[in-house]
Amino acid sequence: MHWQKNLLCFFIFVECCLFLNAAPFTINNNTRTDSPPDSAEATSQLIELDNVNPQVSVNTPNGVLTWMSGEIHNITWSATDSNLFPNQVNIVLSMDGGATYPTLIAVGEVNDGEYSWTIPTMTSFLAKVKVIALDSFGNVGSDHSDGTFTVPGQIVSVTSGIAMDTVDPVAELVKPDATTVGYIDEQNEIQWSASDNHLIDQPIQLQYQKNSTAPWVNIQAALENTSSYLWTVPDVVTPEARVCLVVTDTFGNTASEISNSFCIKHAEPATPLGVSITRLNNQDVRISWNAVTKNIHDIPIQLSSYQILYNDTSGPENDSDYQLLAQVSCSDTNYEFTPTGTLGNSFHSFYRVLAIKDYDKRSNNTPTGLVDSTKKAAFQTSNHSIINRLKQK
């Protein structure tokens, strides 16, 4: 019986060896290689996914202009993408400066870069359009008008004997001008004159820009023709600010004027008052002054610090002769500071107290910014004659 069991084990071993020595096969890219006879082979098609949004740019309307209800104007754009649907351009309208786009203008428009739009009966001084493009992978690209345009919304009936008005209004921007200085967070008056036989109820639009290349920002989109408006100056430090006046009549005629460049800056602190000097001995003095709590326009201000400047030259007039002696922190009381050893052997000793408001957090401890009126205070010179007389004794 043992030989029969051994023979059976031998046959099982031989069959296993034959199976293990069979030709191997692998599957790569859905293709079986070294396949056994009568096997089927299949190769899948490679598909490249697109996750890039279409590039869209609105060309018109794209700035300050007026379109009347009932008129026909072209909305123009460009939209590019390697897989762009030919009929998947949608156009929507905003009447609140781009905050929302609730109104459909066109759906499934051909991407030919132009849509002829009949302006509906509406009123908006902050109108914008947005163009949206979709590609075959579901990617979406869009762009909207850079600036707002106006649809006054008034329909003027022309009776027999009354000619259509094609004359632009007369617009003149009086203030600001090149001499204007606007102080941040304070009110500055804009003045203008505007006239026309058919002005709308609120014909005035006011805008400003930081410089000649910056976008225009609305100050007020629709104002009555009151000839002046108190504008709260924005927090923009610039020597090249400009204001634009736009006037519109009921026939859609417009006129505009742009001011000369003017300066916007922070208001300086008021000059420190009550500055006095007391000699303590042959080397030391005490400097005292009243706290500064308002700026030059009598508006409350919280200072950053005071600087004590000193020079021992022949006169107090030259700013470059002064050196920083100390930086003093602020409180709500009167101040005094006692520098040591500043009298020395000089015949004259001059001191200045500067009130500092560091608007942009520069923490500049040097007096080099003395003439930088957008950041530094004016100064108060101490009573030099006291030091002169005391040093002669």
Describe it.
The chain is mostly beta strands. Helices cover 7% and strands 42% of the residues. The chain has helices spanning 2-20, 384-392, and strands spanning 26-28, 31-33, 55-60, 72-80, 84-94, 103-109, 114-118, 124-135, 140-144, 149-151, 170-175, 181-183, 187-195, 199-209, 217-223, 228-232, 238-249, 254-258, 262-265, 276-279, 285-289, 305-311, 323-328, 335-337, 350-356, 376-381. Strands 12, 14, 15, 17, 18 and 19 form a six-stranded mixed beta sheet that branches. Strands 5, 6, 8, 9 and 10 form a five-stranded antiparallel beta sheet that branches. A four-stranded antiparallel beta sheet has the order 23-22-25-26, with no helix packed on it. The longest helix has 19 residues, at 2-20. Residues 1-40 and 363-393 have low confidence and may be disordered.
* Biggest sheet architecture: 6 strands, mixed
Which regions contain 5 or more consecutive residues with pLDDT less than 50?
A: 1-40, 363-393
Distance between the termini: 140 Å
Order of helices and strands: HEEEEEEEEEEEEEEEEEEEEEEEEEEH
Helix content: under 10%
What structural class do you assign from the helix and strand content? mainly beta
